[in-house]
């Protein structure tokens, strides 16, 4: 495996800022609302207090779950394309030829998207994205560097997903001669 063929997928800076504003700003806003509610200076104090107290734990949880996305130079995962290609994340590797299905799935606890990869041996891998890579980045990387080396069944499933995706149709994504 040649190290020059390694595709390192890093967070998109715009999405880092957007995610940071949503989680850090939301947590700060909830703390502010709770503080204003405790003062009971307004007729809306109970609403401030209830909103702040109710949403603060959830947004603070999301903020702490998403901290790894803000590490400078963070590589979420690597794709090494080729017949013996692999996907590397953390300390795990997934051979490209063993992939059965790939999808971007939302974690219902954190509301962060994860890349869910199911392999031929039935094992499911989750690669955390912290919502800092876009769906287009996900599709382009997997369509161009993983798809050509997947098994025929996985290619069929991926093709079906690409054909039926309204999002890809809306952004006018054009695939590079991937029929099978």
Describe this structure in words.
With 180 residues, this protein is an alpha+beta fold. It is built from 5 helices and 7 strands. The chain has a 4-stranded antiparallel sheet with strand order 1-2-3-4, with helices on one face. The two termini are 24 Å apart.
Number of helices: 5
Tell me the Rg in angstroms. 20 Å
Weakly predicted, low-confidence segments: none
Compressed to H and E, one letter per element, the order equals: EHHEEEEEEHHH
Number of strands: 7
Largest sheet: 4 strands, antiparallel
In which order are the strands of the major sheet placed?
A: 1-2-3-4
Mean of the pLDDT scores?
A: 89
Helix content: 40-55%
Structural class: alpha+beta
Topology record:
Layout: E1 7-9, H1 13-39, H2 45-65, E2 77-80, E3 86-89, E4 92-95, E5 99-106, E6 113-119, E7 124-128, H3 135-146, H4 152-163, H5 166-170
Antiparallel strand pairs: 1-2, 2-3, 3-4, 5-6, 6-7
Helix pairs in contact: 1-2
Give a nutshell description of this structure:
The chain has 180 residues and is α+β, with helices and mostly antiparallel strands.
Give keywords:
alpha+beta, 5 helices, 7 strands
């Amino acid at each position: 495996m040649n190290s020059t063929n390694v595709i390192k997928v890093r967070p998109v800076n715009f999405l880092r800022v957007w995610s940071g504003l949503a989680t850090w700003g939301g947590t700060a806003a909830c703390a502010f609302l709770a503080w204003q509610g405790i003062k009971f200076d307004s007729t809306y104090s109970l609403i401030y207090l209830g909103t702040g107290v109710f949403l603060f734990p959830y947004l603070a949880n999301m903020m702490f779950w998403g901290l790894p996305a803000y590490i400078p130079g963070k590589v979420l995962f690597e794709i090494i394309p080729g017949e013996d290609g692999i996907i590397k994340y953390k300390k795990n590797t997934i051979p490209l030829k063993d992939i059965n299905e790939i999808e971007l799935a939302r974690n219902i606890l954190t509301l962060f998207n994860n890349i869910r990869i199911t392999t031929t041996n039935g094992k499911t891998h989750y690669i955390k994205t912290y919502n800092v890579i876009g769906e287009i980045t996900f599709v382009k990387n997997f369509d161009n560097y993983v798809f050509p080396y997947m098994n025929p069944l996985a290619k069929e499933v991926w093709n079906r997903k690409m054909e039926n995706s309204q999002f890809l149709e809306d952004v006018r994504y054009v695939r590079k001669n991937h029929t099978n």
